[in-house]
Amino acid sequence: MNALWASMGPQLWPAFWTTLKLTFFSAVGAFVWGTILAGLRVSPAPIMRTFGTWYVNLIRNTPLTLIILFCSVGLYQNLGIALAPENSNFIKNNNFWLSVLGFSLYTATFVCETLRSGFNTVPLGQAEAARSLGLSFTRVLSLIVLPQAIRSVLAPMGSVLIALVKNTSIASAIGVAEAALLMRSEIELFADQILWIFLIIAAGYMVITLTIGLTFGYFAKRLAVKR
């Protein structure tokens, strides 16, 4: 156990820090793109609704591992699309941002559907009153519907974020040095202490996910829309 901790201990924080960074940047990207998709799904323009529907159904039902591998193999290795500047850490940084792109594209579909369910909680009369005053669909959505929808879906949005935290382990498939890759490397070195390795990594994920769950639960109660 002492040998395991001497090997694993110094690497725990860097590994989970990478996990936290993956989660943060992917969550930002997923929220922005997911909000746009939600707007497309309820747009009065048929072509926009069709695009939003097809995108959500296609990406949501595609295994996340395939999306991450496509970002690495398809975008970078075959198309030469790089997301990091050329320097000594290019491969490391590029794989990180390719993972962020993949997680954002995938998680945005769940953000979209969560927000869309929140749209249904906003009384239809409010949107109709705003349209009667001459406000465009975009302004009605951004000024009236979206703020209330976000407040009503904070708790399920926390569940989406928790799922994203756990999904970041897939980034190890393209060599991103996060917690799951650390676990894999430690198992190769200390196969006889696999239970302890699992418990340590699981405890780290549990701290992150419980914190997110409690935080979103608190704000969901504080910011709930009064009906």
UniProtKB/TrEMBL annotation:
<keyword id="KW-1133">Transmembrane helix</keyword>
<comment type="similarity">
    <text>Belongs to the binding-protein-dependent transport system permease family. HisMQ subfamily.</text>
</comment>
<dbReference type="InterPro" id="IPR010065">
    <property type="entry name" value="AA_ABC_transptr_permease_3TM"/>
</dbReference>
<dbReference type="GO" id="GO:0006865">
    <property type="term" value="P:amino acid transport"/>
</dbReference>
<keyword id="KW-0813">Transport</keyword>
<dbReference type="Pfam" id="PF00528">
    <property type="entry name" value="BPD_transp_1"/>
</dbReference>
<dbReference type="GO" id="GO:0043190">
    <property type="term" value="C:ATP-binding cassette (ABC) transporter complex"/>
</dbReference>
<dbReference type="GO" id="GO:0022857">
    <property type="term" value="F:transmembrane transporter activity"/>
</dbReference>
<keyword id="KW-0029">Amino-acid transport</keyword>
<feature type="transmembrane region" description="Helical">
    <location>
        <begin position="20"/>
        <end position="42"/>
    </location>
</feature>
<dbReference type="InterPro" id="IPR035906">
    <property type="entry name" value="MetI-like_sf"/>
</dbReference>
<protein>
    <submittedName>
        <fullName>Amino acid ABC transporter permease</fullName>
    </submittedName>
</protein>
<feature type="transmembrane region" description="Helical">
    <location>
        <begin position="194"/>
        <end position="220"/>
    </location>
</feature>
<feature type="domain" description="ABC transmembrane type-1">
    <location>
        <begin position="16"/>
        <end position="216"/>
    </location>
</feature>
<dbReference type="InterPro" id="IPR043429">
    <property type="entry name" value="ArtM/GltK/GlnP/TcyL/YhdX-like"/>
</dbReference>
<feature type="transmembrane region" description="Helical">
    <location>
        <begin position="160"/>
        <end position="182"/>
    </location>
</feature>
<feature type="transmembrane region" description="Helical">
    <location>
        <begin position="54"/>
        <end position="76"/>
    </location>
</feature>
<keyword id="KW-1003">Cell membrane</keyword>
<keyword id="KW-0472">Membrane</keyword>
<keyword id="KW-0812">Transmembrane</keyword>
<dbReference type="InterPro" id="IPR000515">
    <property type="entry name" value="MetI-like"/>
</dbReference>
<feature type="transmembrane region" description="Helical">
    <location>
        <begin position="96"/>
        <end position="115"/>
    </location>
</feature>
